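=== Structure Prediction Worksheet ===
Name of assembly: unnamed complex
Input type: mixed (protein and possibly other molecules)
Chain count: two
Listed entries:
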Amino acid sequence: MDDLKLPGIDYAALAPMLILFGAACVGVLFEALVPRTRRHGIQLSWALLALIAAFVAVIVVRGRRIVTIGGAVAIDGPTVFLQGSILVLGLVSVLLIGERTIEPGGAFVSQAAHTVGSQKDLKQAGGQPGATEVYPLTIFSLGGMLLFVAANDLLTMFVALEVLSLPLYLLCALARRRRLLSQEAALKYFLLGSYASAFFLFGVALIYGFSGGVDLASIHTAVADPARSEVLLFGGLALVAIGLLFKSAAVPFHVWTPDVYQGAPTPVTALMAACTKVAAFGALARVLYVAFEGVRWDFQPVLGTVAVLTMLVGAVLAVTQTDMKRLLAYSSIANAGYVLVGVLALNKEGLSSMMFYLVAYGFSVLAAFGIVSLVRDAEGEATHLSRWAGLGRKSPVFAALFSFILLAFAGIPLTSGFTSKFAVFGAAIDGGQTWLVIVGVITSMLLAFPYLRVVVLMWLSEPGEATPAVSIPGFLTSAALAIGVIATFALGVVPAPLLDLTNDAAQFVR
Amino acid sequence: MKDFPFLSILTLLPLVGAAVVAFIPRTRAGLAKTVALAWSVVVLALSIVMWVAFEAGGDRFQFRESYQWIPTWDARFTFATDGIALVMLVLIALLVPLVMLASWHDVDETQRSVPTYFALLLALECTMIGVFAAADVFLFYVFFEVMLVPMYFIIGSFGGQRRQYAAVKFFLYSLVGGLFMLAAVIGLWVVGGHTFDWQALTDASGSFNTNTARWLFLGFFVAFAVKAPFFPFHTWLPDAGGAAPAPAAALLVGVLDKVGTFGILRYCLPIFPEASRWFAPAALVLGVIGILYAALLAVGQNDLKRLVSYTSIAHFGFIGIGIFAFTTQAGTGSVLYMVNHGLATGLLFLVVGMFVSRRGSALVSDFGGAGRMVPVLAGLLFFAGLASLALPGTAPFISEFLVLIGTFTNHKVYAVIATAGIILAAAYVLWMVQRTTQGTLNPALSETPAMQRDITLREKVVVAPLVLLLLLLGFYPKPVTDVINPAVQATMQDVGTTDPVPSAVANGRVAR
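=== Predicted Assembly ===
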């Protein structure tokens, strides 16, 4: 028997992920050992510290271009860039998650096991401090995302998918208010997510049957070989793609999005909208660009159709929404379509524009959900649109910030929304995908309507009796909001540095 | 003098002013108004200095500045102005202080924040100047779209009845047009060799594929036609003009809409010359329809502000046919028309606004015999109306005459039909003046205390420059034509049409 040989491991390149996973484990220990009253401060600082440390580690390895641990993980331009973005966006989400001053006890339930409506439940709703498990869970999830965008074989990708998803399912169920809605959302997310994972795993099996390996490089070689079975190849690719498109909320795999976005605690929704999207598209792009580049002409029209449907469904259904969180959910579906347009350019510009879009959108959406978490009355967040009427009169600063974010979503110049749309559309026309751009332009017009309706509601309608006041945000939410809004403005006015960064990063290793 | 960064300062100055004014607390309304007015006067002074420094017979583009912006896309802050843009810049700088002065008391009555209104006006001035000063397609697009935002809030927050509907309609129409242009801008960037520089794109225009160029041309044209507005994209203007505060409406039709016709002259014609020639017949038809249709609708309007809005649509039809007639005469006429229309319709809107704010209603039927109450204002309305219908001796006459005679050399039929628009113009203007200021006195008027007060000193200051300019340019348009003529000639050369000697051969070639 041959000696088992351990593959070479580049620990430095893996450091960001190791830091996060380690920190999450320590966070679990804190949960067990630290007294309840002191947990929140410690957990929050620990999580922020871990994210900053991981980000520093990303900076340190930024020049590295290698495939390590036996081909399981690839550290290259997109990995480094996307990991960095996930960490920064994750940091801002953790700020939102850590907010405890707006609502007594925070947005999270103090004890998830209390039956809804029971005495204990009513007591916790009254202001017991929220659960602190959310921090290790968030860090685990973010660690999974880092691995997801770096995974260089499909099994690693599957493991990463589960690591990032399972904590998210739990986080969705932890809302302090409207707990039934929140639990229902978590269940829905969990069930559909499990199906998607199953599809993904089945797809990996077919691909393994096709190529005899699960790492992207050997799939790439196998794809070039005409003698192999096309049924296995396209079946496998389709199933793997379903798993990935589910996470990125592309039509027709989007049905969970509005319910989950609405039901989850708002900071978790923000985390999903910003970070999960980056991770999902990062992985999708890697699979398509690295492994299946040889059959690009075959999957391009299919995915193009998915992109068209995603943009159309997202835009059309956004028009009909009456709940702010659902509106933002449909808008995020439509935005997934625009990102997909960038991905489908299948050139270097496509990749870099995708990365730019994800970062720009992430910051805007974090700010948007940050504001949603501030507009509240005695019942918790007031997300019904009619409640927002006349908000501009009552809280002009927040209404102005939110209007600015909405204008960014609508793609008005001098906001990041415009630059990112310009980038993906430009890449797509360059890549010969003019039809996608035409649909993109048409849906942008449709999508402008719901955003504008909200602006009209806030500024041009008279405030009603039911218009809630905007809560004064604590330091954490203010910081998150400020970062989101400033980034949205800065990426609209001086996008050059980030564009250069994405351009330099847009090269996969194989 | 030539190296002074006129254009970037002229663009940024109002923006700084807007920021300053926006931070004045709403209780200090008087201070906000004074600061805003003083600021806009400084901008006006700067624009006049620039006018003087501009060499009428010199380079086509002057005061060129270029700064790095987004190197990945080769998008730059490039500012430069030719004669056409220059006259529009000065027109903006002139109208903004007048508009501010005209809305001195209007906004107080709407219970809204006065500093916000004046800050929005300054922000709007910044975007309008930017859009005319840009010599980079990307920069132009950015200003083109951002321009919507302050105007949207001016209409939506400070307008009259149905302001929400009008504001949203205005925004959506313009945004839809703008997104078509966005697709065309990206397409142009791809086929034009990954640059946004106006000069580079114009130089490369010969190498475009014919079909591609036509599609791109249409993308630009739709955006400009919505903005201008040309028939059949005009339906937002009567709503917006009717709902906006009258002084802001003066700015809307006086300058903001000119971006449409200016865009056609600056971007459609030089960058897509072949497509422009190909599309010219259709554009001429649209122009003629616009002239007659809008004029007919104007005759039937009962709302003064909507009526004036419709007259503008008719006038834009004239500007349109002048551009697409492809003669220097008609082109010069069109550009001159853009200026004169800004003066005449601006004045008309301002005077109508004075009537409306006194009576509290814009309905023609709420007036009647107003001339007995406010004779001077009534006289002003008559004068503004006559200028608007292009009476000889007022500035619009010269431009309308040039457009028609220039169009006639190439397209006799269109010119003849368009002439019918002049008759209709006389009908709507005279009928409006008659029903509001002449005849028996409407008893409701004498019961309105505000109607007792004839024109105030502030209002005289508002109208005096416009009246003087309309008369002056009506008799002596040379200072303006000297500036715009070289630019128009260069544009016509870009399109590749030379002015026909009056012969059938030349006619046939261009008309094909």
